[in-house]
Amino acid sequence: MQHIVLEVGLALALMAAAALLSARLRFSVVPFLILAGMAVGPHAPKVGPFDFRFIESAPLIEFMGRVGVLFLLFYLGLEFSVSRLIKAGRSIVVGGSIYIAINFVAGLGYAALMGWPLKEVLVVAGITTISSSAIVAKVLFDLRRTANTETELILGIIMFEDIFLAVYLSLVSGVVLSGATSVGGVLTSAGLALAFILGLIIFGRVATPLLNRAFRISSDEVFLLVLFACLFLLAGLGETIHVAEAIGALLLGLVLAETEHGERIEHMIVPFRDFFGALFFFGFGLTIDPFALGGAVWPVVGAVLVTIAGNVLAGVLAGRSAKLRPAASLNIGLTIVSRGEFSIIMANLARAGGLLPVIQPFAALYVLILAVLGPLLTKESERIYDLSVKLFNRSRTEGEASAEAEIVNRD
Length: 411
Description:
Layout: H1 4-25, H2 29-39, E1 46-47, E2 50-51, H3 58-79, H4 82-88, H5 90-113, H6 118-129, H7 133-142, H8 151-178, H9 183-206, H10 208-214, H11 220-240, H12 245-257, H13 262-286, H14 297-321, H15 326-335, H16 341-352, H17 359-379, H18 381-410
Antiparallel strand pairs: 1-2
Helix pairs in contact: 1-2, 2-13, 2-17, 3-12, 3-13, 5-6, 5-8, 5-14, 6-8, 6-16, 8-9, 8-16, 9-12, 11-12, 14-15, 14-17, 16-17
């Protein structure tokens, strides 16, 4: 263990280089961090004092990556609250339901067609359903589309996805991690996970005044210690009843978002989210052998095509339900096509549950492709819309001409 500090320093240097490159290219850092992790690991060489295999530090990097998941989900919970959904309005609920329904059913059907077992089907459906809120938010900011008419609905759909994620991840983790196989065992595990979620949400709503008083701590140091203690204890408690630890973190964020300390917590937690979150993506890449991706290529290509088609259809229908213009509706589907942190969390759940090894490279390649394609499709959404209008008008004109010719021939 004498070289563990050097290995961690080397990992941080690789992550910093990946982040600098992504900033220079004005792209999401997620695929760059995953690629940096995939480029090294057990298959990499040792060059002098630098061990690119990361053998000694792998357990520590994996643990810090798990901490990164906690901070990512905790921060997400802080950004969202139950009361915000209630105020969001009918269009967000309808649009979010349309988006989840189309993409979830498509994911389930595609995984079933691949012939994978039930647990793998459930995990893959989760991988292909949830957008990356981090990538979507960055794209909207970089392209200066925050004031667009469709942006409110885009953010609302992402918010709706977060609720689905919380419930679905809890239910699936109860099935995958508990090892339940019978119908009764599955229902019991799912029921326990759902009770855990609802119980904490209800407690948070009722105990808000108590939490307001409990967190009135003037010292930032003591405040952070108390906050971290709550975060790790709640996440660990959820794990003991086979609820993914990330859900405990998300629920704590939801609860504390309702208190008067939400902004203070959010401000203090951002550096931890960014640092440990980066380690999470890099650590995920470390677990992927790039030479083993071959078996996942064709399943991923099919999944990417299904996802893009499902997103476009869902975006058009959601936009139509909100009475948006066709171009704005297409923007919705193309903007939220990116996949990222949540897909990887689902893949890690499969790994923890001992599911098929193909899920890991499948998720890695799937996220890489869509994390790159998503921003590109969003940037070119106007051209894509113009092209689709031209193709539609051309096909309609050709159809009308054919119909007229048929009438003339008939006469």
